[in-house]
Amino acid sequence: MLATKISDITGIWKQYQGNPLFAPSGNMGFIRYNADGSFALGATPESTAAPRAPFPSGTVRFADGRMTMQVQNAPPTMPECARAVYEVRVIKMGQRPVALYYTPVEDTCKPRLADLGHVLPYIGPAR
Question: What residues contact residue 29 under an 8 Å CB cut-off, 6+ apart?
Answer without folding.
Answer: 14, 15, 16, 17, 22, 41, 42, 43, 55
